[in-house]
Protein backbone atom coordinates (compact mmCIF):
# COMPACT_ATOMS: atom_id res chain seq x y z
CA UNK A 1 0.00 0.00 0.00
CA UNK A 2 1.92 2.99 -1.30
CA UNK A 3 -0.60 5.51 0.06
CA UNK A 4 0.30 4.71 3.64
CA UNK A 5 3.98 5.30 2.85
CA UNK A 6 3.27 8.80 1.61
CA UNK A 7 3.83 11.70 3.93
CA UNK A 8 0.62 13.24 5.34
CA UNK A 9 1.24 16.41 3.36
CA UNK A 10 1.26 14.38 0.15
CA UNK A 11 -2.02 12.67 1.07
CA UNK A 12 -3.63 15.95 2.08
CA UNK A 13 -4.50 17.24 -1.41
CA UNK A 14 -6.63 14.22 -2.34
CA UNK A 15 -8.12 13.80 1.13
CA UNK A 16 -9.15 17.43 0.98
CA UNK A 17 -10.71 17.16 -2.47
CA UNK A 18 -12.70 14.06 -1.50
CA UNK A 19 -13.84 14.88 2.01
CA UNK A 20 -13.40 18.48 3.11
CA UNK A 21 -16.34 20.83 2.40
CA UNK A 22 -14.60 24.20 2.30
CA UNK A 23 -16.23 27.40 3.55
CA UNK A 24 -17.08 30.09 1.00
CA UNK A 25 -15.93 28.05 -1.96
CA UNK A 26 -16.69 28.04 -5.67
CA UNK A 27 -17.12 24.34 -6.35
CA UNK A 28 -16.68 24.70 -10.10
CA UNK A 29 -13.09 25.80 -9.84
CA UNK A 30 -12.57 23.67 -6.74
CA UNK A 31 -13.38 20.48 -8.64
CA UNK A 32 -10.95 21.47 -11.39
CA UNK A 33 -8.09 22.82 -9.34
CA UNK A 34 -8.38 21.35 -5.85
CA UNK A 35 -6.74 23.22 -3.01
CA UNK A 36 -3.44 24.84 -2.43
CA UNK A 37 -2.13 23.14 0.69
CA UNK A 38 -0.19 25.51 2.94
CA UNK A 39 2.45 23.57 4.80
CA UNK A 40 4.32 26.04 6.94
CA UNK A 41 4.51 29.72 7.73
CA UNK A 42 6.84 32.20 9.31
CA UNK A 43 6.61 35.97 9.71
CA UNK A 44 4.71 37.33 6.70
CA UNK A 45 5.52 34.28 4.56
CA UNK A 46 3.51 31.11 3.95
CA UNK A 47 4.83 28.11 2.02
CA UNK A 48 2.81 25.51 0.13
CA UNK A 49 3.52 21.80 -0.19
CA UNK A 50 5.25 22.43 -3.51
CA UNK A 51 7.81 24.51 -1.58
CA UNK A 52 6.73 27.82 -3.09
CA UNK A 53 6.76 30.77 -0.68
CA UNK A 54 4.27 33.64 -0.72
CA UNK A 55 3.97 36.97 1.01
CA UNK A 56 0.72 36.69 2.97
CA UNK A 57 -0.89 40.08 2.31
CA UNK A 58 -4.13 39.04 4.03
CA UNK A 59 -2.81 37.77 7.38
CA UNK A 60 -4.46 34.39 6.90
CA UNK A 61 -7.94 35.92 6.96
CA UNK A 62 -7.54 39.31 8.67
CA UNK A 63 -6.28 37.54 11.74
CA UNK A 64 -2.57 36.57 11.88
CA UNK A 65 -1.80 40.04 13.17
CA UNK A 66 1.58 39.28 14.71
CA UNK A 67 2.66 37.18 11.76
CA UNK A 68 3.17 33.45 11.49
CA UNK A 69 5.43 31.16 13.51
CA UNK A 70 5.54 33.17 16.73
CA UNK A 71 7.14 30.73 19.15
CA UNK A 72 6.18 32.89 22.16
CA UNK A 73 2.50 32.37 21.37
CA UNK A 74 2.92 28.68 20.53
CA UNK A 75 4.88 28.18 23.76
CA UNK A 76 2.22 29.92 25.86
CA UNK A 77 -0.41 27.68 24.29
CA UNK A 78 1.67 24.53 24.74
CA UNK A 79 2.48 25.35 28.34
CA UNK A 80 -1.19 25.96 29.14
CA UNK A 81 -2.28 22.79 27.30
CA UNK A 82 0.18 20.72 29.30
CA UNK A 83 -0.74 22.33 32.61
CA UNK A 84 -4.51 22.40 32.17
CA UNK A 85 -5.92 22.10 28.67
CA UNK A 86 -9.55 22.55 29.54
CA UNK A 87 -12.12 22.79 32.25
CA UNK A 88 -15.49 24.49 31.86
CA UNK A 89 -16.21 28.06 32.96
CA UNK A 90 -19.94 27.57 33.54
CA UNK A 91 -21.19 28.75 36.89
CA UNK A 92 -18.42 29.33 39.37
CA UNK A 93 -15.46 27.61 37.65
CA UNK A 94 -12.79 29.61 35.94
CA UNK A 95 -9.19 29.30 34.79
CA UNK A 96 -6.19 31.57 35.14
CA UNK A 97 -5.74 32.80 31.51
CA UNK A 98 -9.48 33.50 30.97
CA UNK A 99 -9.71 35.57 34.15
CA UNK A 100 -6.52 37.52 33.55
CA UNK A 101 -7.38 38.14 29.90
CA UNK A 102 -10.80 39.59 30.78
CA UNK A 103 -9.07 42.18 32.98
CA UNK A 104 -6.42 42.96 30.34
CA UNK A 105 -9.06 43.46 27.65
CA UNK A 106 -11.22 45.62 29.92
CA UNK A 107 -8.18 47.77 30.74
CA UNK A 108 -7.68 48.55 27.03
CA UNK A 109 -11.34 48.91 26.06
CA UNK A 110 -12.93 52.36 25.87
CA UNK A 111 -15.41 53.84 28.36
CA UNK A 112 -16.98 51.43 30.80
CA UNK A 113 -16.70 48.37 28.55
CA UNK A 114 -15.40 46.37 31.48
CA UNK A 115 -17.13 43.01 31.09
CA UNK A 116 -16.21 40.22 28.69
CA UNK A 117 -18.28 37.26 27.49
CA UNK A 118 -16.14 34.68 25.69
CA UNK A 119 -17.07 32.65 22.65
CA UNK A 120 -15.27 30.87 19.83
CA UNK A 121 -15.03 33.47 17.06
CA UNK A 122 -16.65 36.50 15.47
CA UNK A 123 -19.97 34.88 14.58
CA UNK A 124 -20.61 33.48 18.04
CA UNK A 125 -19.44 36.78 19.57
CA UNK A 126 -22.04 38.64 17.47
CA UNK A 127 -24.73 36.12 18.39
CA UNK A 128 -23.77 36.68 22.01
CA UNK A 129 -24.10 40.45 21.61
CA UNK A 130 -27.63 40.15 20.26
CA UNK A 131 -28.81 37.43 22.63
CA UNK A 132 -27.60 39.29 25.69
CA UNK A 133 -29.01 42.62 24.44
CA UNK A 134 -32.41 40.97 24.00
CA UNK A 135 -32.04 39.51 27.47
CA UNK A 136 -31.07 42.94 28.83
CA UNK A 137 -34.19 44.60 27.45
CA UNK A 138 -36.34 41.71 28.67
CA UNK A 139 -34.92 42.21 32.14
CA UNK A 140 -35.86 45.88 31.92
CA UNK A 141 -39.40 44.84 30.99
CA UNK A 142 -39.02 46.34 27.51
CA UNK A 143 -40.02 43.21 25.66
CA UNK A 144 -40.79 44.94 22.36
CA UNK A 145 -37.20 46.14 21.92
CA UNK A 146 -35.98 43.36 19.62
CA UNK A 147 -35.15 44.64 16.13
CA UNK A 148 -31.55 45.05 15.05
CA UNK A 149 -30.51 47.54 12.38
CA UNK A 150 -27.50 46.48 10.35
CA UNK A 151 -26.01 47.75 7.09
CA UNK A 152 -25.93 46.53 3.52
CA UNK A 153 -22.51 45.06 2.74
CA UNK A 154 -21.71 44.55 6.42
CA UNK A 155 -20.21 41.18 7.30
CA UNK A 156 -20.98 39.76 10.72
CA UNK A 157 -20.47 36.01 10.33
CA UNK A 158 -21.99 32.72 9.39
CA UNK A 159 -24.03 31.32 12.28
CA UNK A 160 -27.74 31.59 11.57
CA UNK A 161 -28.14 34.91 13.35
CA UNK A 162 -24.80 36.46 12.40
CA UNK A 163 -25.55 35.63 8.77
CA UNK A 164 -28.91 37.41 9.12
CA UNK A 165 -27.02 40.49 10.34
CA UNK A 166 -24.73 40.23 7.33
CA UNK A 167 -25.82 42.55 4.53
CA UNK A 168 -23.75 41.23 1.63
CA UNK A 169 -26.28 40.22 -0.99
CA UNK A 170 -24.20 37.41 -2.52
CA UNK A 171 -23.75 35.47 0.69
CA UNK A 172 -27.49 34.94 1.05
CA UNK A 173 -27.94 33.32 -2.37
CA UNK A 174 -29.67 29.97 -2.02
CA UNK A 175 -29.93 30.28 1.75
CA UNK A 176 -32.84 31.11 4.02
CA UNK A 177 -32.85 33.91 6.55
CA UNK A 178 -34.34 33.81 9.99
CA UNK A 179 -37.17 36.18 10.76
CA UNK A 180 -36.85 38.93 8.20
CA UNK A 181 -38.59 41.28 10.58
CA UNK A 182 -35.92 40.99 13.26
CA UNK A 183 -33.04 42.41 11.22
CA UNK A 184 -33.29 45.50 9.01
CA UNK A 185 -30.58 46.91 6.78
CA UNK A 186 -29.73 50.49 5.90
CA UNK A 187 -27.30 51.76 3.25
CA UNK A 188 -23.61 51.04 3.39
CA UNK A 189 -21.39 54.06 3.97
CA UNK A 190 -19.91 53.64 0.51
CA UNK A 191 -18.32 56.96 -0.44
CA UNK A 192 -17.25 55.72 -3.86
CA UNK A 193 -20.80 54.77 -4.77
CA UNK A 194 -22.62 57.64 -3.06
CA UNK A 195 -25.48 59.26 -4.95
CA UNK A 196 -24.24 61.58 -7.70
CA UNK A 197 -23.72 65.21 -6.80
CA UNK A 198 -23.22 64.72 -3.06
CA UNK A 199 -20.02 65.67 -1.29
CA UNK A 200 -18.76 63.72 1.73
CA UNK A 201 -20.58 65.87 4.30
CA UNK A 202 -23.86 65.71 2.40
CA UNK A 203 -23.52 61.96 2.05
CA UNK A 204 -23.03 61.71 5.81
CA UNK A 205 -26.23 63.74 6.37
CA UNK A 206 -28.01 61.46 3.92
CA UNK A 207 -26.95 58.30 5.77
CA UNK A 208 -27.83 59.68 9.20
CA UNK A 209 -31.22 60.85 7.89
CA UNK A 210 -31.89 57.45 6.39
CA UNK A 211 -31.20 55.78 9.73
CA UNK A 212 -33.35 58.34 11.56
CA UNK A 213 -36.23 57.64 9.22
CA UNK A 214 -35.80 53.89 9.55
CA UNK A 215 -35.87 54.12 13.35
CA UNK A 216 -39.00 56.24 13.12
CA UNK A 217 -40.62 53.80 10.72
CA UNK A 218 -39.83 50.76 12.90
CA UNK A 219 -40.57 52.62 16.14
CA UNK A 220 -37.65 53.29 18.48
CA UNK A 221 -39.49 51.27 21.13
CA UNK A 222 -39.05 48.20 18.90
CA UNK A 223 -35.38 48.67 18.03
CA UNK A 224 -32.81 47.11 20.36
CA UNK A 225 -29.51 47.80 18.63
CA UNK A 226 -27.58 49.07 15.65
CA UNK A 227 -24.51 47.10 14.52
CA UNK A 228 -21.62 48.33 12.38
CA UNK A 229 -18.00 47.61 11.63
CA UNK A 230 -15.84 50.74 12.19
CA UNK A 231 -14.45 50.12 8.70
CA UNK A 232 -16.38 47.57 6.67
CA UNK A 233 -14.11 44.68 5.81
CA UNK A 234 -15.44 41.81 3.72
CA UNK A 235 -18.03 44.16 2.16
CA UNK A 236 -15.16 45.82 0.27
CA UNK A 237 -13.19 47.88 2.83
CA UNK A 238 -15.50 50.86 3.12
CA UNK A 239 -14.43 53.84 5.21
CA UNK A 240 -17.42 55.91 6.32
CA UNK A 241 -17.60 59.69 5.83
CA UNK A 242 -16.00 61.78 8.57
CA UNK A 243 -18.19 62.02 11.67
CA UNK A 244 -20.53 59.21 10.58
CA UNK A 245 -20.04 56.83 13.52
CA UNK A 246 -20.19 59.62 16.10
CA UNK A 247 -23.43 60.96 14.68
CA UNK A 248 -24.98 57.52 14.38
CA UNK A 249 -23.99 56.74 17.97
CA UNK A 250 -25.63 59.97 19.11
CA UNK A 251 -28.81 59.15 17.18
CA UNK A 252 -28.84 55.70 18.80
CA UNK A 253 -28.43 57.21 22.27
CA UNK A 254 -31.32 59.61 21.69
CA UNK A 255 -33.50 56.62 20.85
CA UNK A 256 -32.21 54.26 23.57
CA UNK A 257 -30.82 51.97 20.91
CA UNK A 258 -27.59 50.20 21.80
CA UNK A 259 -24.61 50.61 19.48
CA UNK A 260 -22.70 47.39 18.75
CA UNK A 261 -19.27 47.95 17.17
CA UNK A 262 -18.16 44.81 15.34
CA UNK A 263 -14.40 45.18 15.80
CA UNK A 264 -13.59 41.60 14.79
CA UNK A 265 -11.19 42.95 12.15
CA UNK A 266 -10.43 46.46 13.43
CA UNK A 267 -9.72 45.49 17.05
CA UNK A 268 -6.27 44.67 18.39
CA UNK A 269 -4.20 46.94 16.21
CA UNK A 270 -5.21 46.83 12.57
CA UNK A 271 -6.09 50.54 12.62
CA UNK A 272 -3.22 51.44 14.95
CA UNK A 273 -5.15 51.22 18.23
CA UNK A 274 -6.42 48.52 20.57
CA UNK A 275 -9.93 49.40 19.43
CA UNK A 276 -10.88 51.74 16.59
CA UNK A 277 -14.26 53.00 17.82
CA UNK A 278 -13.04 55.62 20.24
CA UNK A 279 -9.46 56.24 19.12
CA UNK A 280 -10.15 56.45 15.37
CA UNK A 281 -13.81 57.42 15.23
CA UNK A 282 -14.48 59.27 18.45
CA UNK A 283 -17.32 57.39 20.10
CA UNK A 284 -17.74 54.78 22.80
CA UNK A 285 -20.09 51.96 21.80
CA UNK A 286 -22.28 50.06 24.28
CA UNK A 287 -20.96 46.72 23.06
CA UNK A 288 -17.74 45.78 21.23
CA UNK A 289 -17.38 42.49 19.42
CA UNK A 290 -13.88 41.11 19.08
CA UNK A 291 -12.23 37.97 17.66
CA UNK A 292 -9.45 37.24 15.12
CA UNK A 293 -6.62 39.59 16.21
CA UNK A 294 -7.35 39.09 19.91
CA UNK A 295 -5.44 35.81 19.74
CA UNK A 296 -3.52 36.84 16.64
CA UNK A 297 -5.33 33.98 14.91
CA UNK A 298 -3.39 31.30 16.78
CA UNK A 299 -6.46 29.82 18.43
CA UNK A 300 -10.21 30.35 17.99
CA UNK A 301 -11.51 33.02 20.36
CA UNK A 302 -14.33 35.53 20.44
CA UNK A 303 -14.96 38.17 23.09
CA UNK A 304 -18.03 40.39 23.44
CA UNK A 305 -17.46 43.41 25.67
CA UNK A 306 -20.36 44.96 27.57
CA UNK A 307 -20.64 48.31 29.35
CA UNK A 308 -21.13 48.64 33.10
CA UNK A 309 -24.71 49.77 32.46
CA UNK A 310 -25.59 46.57 30.59
CA UNK A 311 -23.67 44.39 33.02
CA UNK A 312 -25.57 45.85 35.98
CA UNK A 313 -28.80 44.58 34.47
CA UNK A 314 -27.77 41.18 33.10
CA UNK A 315 -25.54 40.06 35.97
CA UNK A 316 -28.36 39.99 38.51
CA UNK A 317 -30.33 36.80 39.19
CA UNK A 318 -33.77 36.71 37.58
CA UNK A 319 -35.02 34.87 40.65
CA UNK A 320 -33.16 33.08 43.42
CA UNK A 321 -31.18 30.35 41.66
CA UNK A 322 -31.96 31.74 38.18
CA UNK A 323 -29.03 31.61 35.75
CA UNK A 324 -27.94 33.55 32.70
CA UNK A 325 -28.46 30.67 30.30
CA UNK A 326 -26.02 31.51 27.55
CA UNK A 327 -22.56 30.12 26.91
CA UNK A 328 -20.39 27.74 24.97
CA UNK A 329 -18.35 24.72 26.04
CA UNK A 330 -15.30 26.66 24.97
CA UNK A 331 -16.20 30.05 26.51
CA UNK A 332 -12.88 31.14 28.02
CA UNK A 333 -10.90 28.20 26.66
CA UNK A 334 -7.60 28.36 28.57
CA UNK A 335 -5.39 27.64 25.54
CA UNK A 336 -7.07 30.35 23.43
CA UNK A 337 -6.89 32.81 26.32
CA UNK A 338 -3.21 32.00 26.86
CA UNK A 339 -2.62 32.78 23.16
CA UNK A 340 -4.44 36.10 23.62
CA UNK A 341 -2.42 37.05 26.71
CA UNK A 342 0.78 36.33 24.80
CA UNK A 343 -0.56 38.41 21.89
CA UNK A 344 -1.26 41.43 24.11
CA UNK A 345 2.17 41.07 25.66
CA UNK A 346 3.89 41.12 22.24
CA UNK A 347 1.79 44.02 20.93
CA UNK A 348 2.98 46.01 23.92
CA UNK A 349 6.61 44.85 24.04
CA UNK A 350 7.20 45.40 20.33
CA UNK A 351 5.24 48.67 20.08
CA UNK A 352 3.10 47.15 17.36
CA UNK A 353 0.46 49.89 17.56
CA UNK A 354 2.95 52.65 16.77
CA UNK A 355 4.47 50.48 14.04
CA UNK A 356 1.00 50.22 12.43
CA UNK A 357 0.57 53.98 12.76
CA UNK A 358 3.79 54.38 10.80
CA UNK A 359 3.49 51.73 8.08
CA UNK A 360 -0.31 51.97 7.69
CA UNK A 361 -0.35 55.45 6.11
CA UNK A 362 2.68 54.40 4.02
CA UNK A 363 0.71 51.46 2.59
CA UNK A 364 -2.33 53.65 1.88
CA UNK A 365 -0.19 56.26 0.10
CA UNK A 366 1.68 53.75 -2.01
CA UNK A 367 -1.53 51.93 -2.98
CA UNK A 368 -2.98 55.17 -4.36
CA UNK A 369 -0.41 54.84 -7.17
CA UNK A 370 -2.54 52.00 -8.53
CA UNK A 371 -5.09 54.59 -9.65
CA UNK A 372 -2.89 55.11 -12.68
CA UNK A 373 -4.27 51.82 -14.08
CA UNK A 374 -7.46 52.24 -16.07
CA UNK A 375 -9.08 49.20 -14.36
CA UNK A 376 -8.65 50.66 -10.89
CA UNK A 377 -11.70 52.71 -9.95
CA UNK A 378 -11.00 53.35 -6.29
CA UNK A 379 -8.30 52.74 -3.70
CA UNK A 380 -9.38 53.14 -0.08
CA UNK A 381 -8.75 51.97 3.42
CA UNK A 382 -7.35 52.85 6.79
CA UNK A 383 -3.95 51.82 8.13
CA UNK A 384 -3.51 48.10 7.41
CA UNK A 385 -6.91 47.50 5.79
CA UNK A 386 -7.17 48.34 2.12
CA UNK A 387 -9.50 47.75 -0.81
CA UNK A 388 -8.82 48.25 -4.52
CA UNK A 389 -12.03 48.34 -6.55
CA UNK A 390 -11.78 47.28 -10.18
CA UNK A 391 -14.00 48.81 -12.85
CA UNK A 392 -14.69 48.19 -16.50
CA UNK A 393 -15.56 51.83 -17.07
CA UNK A 394 -13.80 54.26 -14.76
CA UNK A 395 -15.61 57.33 -15.97
CA UNK A 396 -19.01 55.89 -15.16
CA UNK A 397 -17.85 53.69 -12.27
CA UNK A 398 -19.21 50.53 -13.87
CA UNK A 399 -17.96 47.25 -12.46
CA UNK A 400 -16.93 44.21 -14.44
CA UNK A 401 -19.69 41.61 -14.87
CA UNK A 402 -19.77 39.17 -11.93
CA UNK A 403 -18.65 36.32 -14.21
CA UNK A 404 -15.71 38.24 -15.69
CA UNK A 405 -13.46 36.97 -12.92
CA UNK A 406 -11.46 40.22 -12.99
CA UNK A 407 -10.45 40.18 -9.33
CA UNK A 408 -9.83 36.44 -9.47
CA UNK A 409 -7.39 37.05 -12.33
CA UNK A 410 -5.50 39.56 -10.19
CA UNK A 411 -5.47 37.05 -7.33
CA UNK A 412 -4.06 34.31 -9.58
CA UNK A 413 -1.49 36.58 -11.23
CA UNK A 414 -0.31 37.95 -7.87
CA UNK A 415 -0.07 34.44 -6.44
CA UNK A 416 2.09 33.36 -9.37
CA UNK A 417 4.38 36.25 -8.47
CA UNK A 418 4.44 35.17 -4.83
CA UNK A 419 1.92 37.48 -3.17
CA UNK A 420 -1.42 36.36 -1.74
CA UNK A 421 -4.20 38.98 -1.90
CA UNK A 422 -7.93 38.38 -1.53
CA UNK A 423 -10.58 38.93 -4.17
CA UNK A 424 -14.03 39.80 -2.78
CA UNK A 425 -16.53 40.73 -5.45
CA UNK A 426 -15.01 43.59 -7.42
CA UNK A 427 -12.50 44.46 -4.74
CA UNK A 428 -8.99 43.24 -4.02
CA UNK A 429 -8.61 43.24 -0.29
CA UNK A 430 -5.37 43.63 1.66
CA UNK A 431 -4.94 43.09 5.40
CA UNK A 432 -1.31 42.13 5.96
CA UNK A 433 0.14 41.07 9.30
CA UNK A 434 0.71 44.15 11.48
CA UNK A 435 4.43 43.41 11.60
CA UNK A 436 4.82 44.06 7.87
CA UNK A 437 7.72 46.30 6.87
CA UNK A 438 7.78 49.12 4.33
CA UNK A 439 9.97 46.98 2.05
CA UNK A 440 7.35 44.20 2.13
CA UNK A 441 4.60 46.74 1.42
CA UNK A 442 6.66 47.80 -1.62
CA UNK A 443 6.67 44.19 -2.83
CA UNK A 444 2.87 43.99 -2.53
CA UNK A 445 2.31 47.29 -4.37
CA UNK A 446 4.87 46.54 -7.10
CA UNK A 447 3.30 43.12 -7.66
CA UNK A 448 -0.16 44.67 -7.95
CA UNK A 449 1.17 47.16 -10.51
CA UNK A 450 2.37 44.25 -12.63
CA UNK A 451 -0.86 42.25 -12.29
CA UNK A 452 -3.23 45.13 -13.05
CA UNK A 453 -1.99 45.25 -16.61
CA UNK A 454 -3.25 41.68 -17.09
CA UNK A 455 -6.87 42.57 -16.36
CA UNK A 456 -9.22 44.18 -18.84
N1 LIG B 1 -17.41 40.15 11.99
C1 LIG B 1 -16.53 40.61 11.08
C2 LIG B 1 -16.38 42.09 10.91
C3 LIG B 1 -15.77 39.72 10.32
O1 LIG B 1 -14.91 40.18 9.39
C4 LIG B 1 -15.94 38.33 10.53
C5 LIG B 1 -15.15 37.36 9.77
O2 LIG B 1 -14.50 37.67 8.81
C6 LIG B 1 -16.88 37.91 11.48
C7 LIG B 1 -17.59 38.85 12.19
C8 LIG B 1 -17.13 36.45 11.70
O3 LIG B 1 -16.09 35.90 12.41
P1 LIG B 1 -15.84 34.31 12.42
O4 LIG B 1 -15.58 33.92 11.02
O5 LIG B 1 -14.68 34.16 13.36
O6 LIG B 1 -17.08 33.68 12.98
Automatic annotation (TrEMBL):
GO terms for molecular function: pyridoxal phosphate binding; transaminase activity. It comes from the Bacteria. Its cofactor is pyridoxal 5'-phosphate. Belongs to the class-III pyridoxal-phosphate-dependent aminotransferase family. Keywords: Aminotransferase, Pyridoxal phosphate, Transferase. This is Adenosylmethionine-8-amino-7-oxononanoate aminotransferase. SUPFAM superfamilies: PLP-dependent transferases.
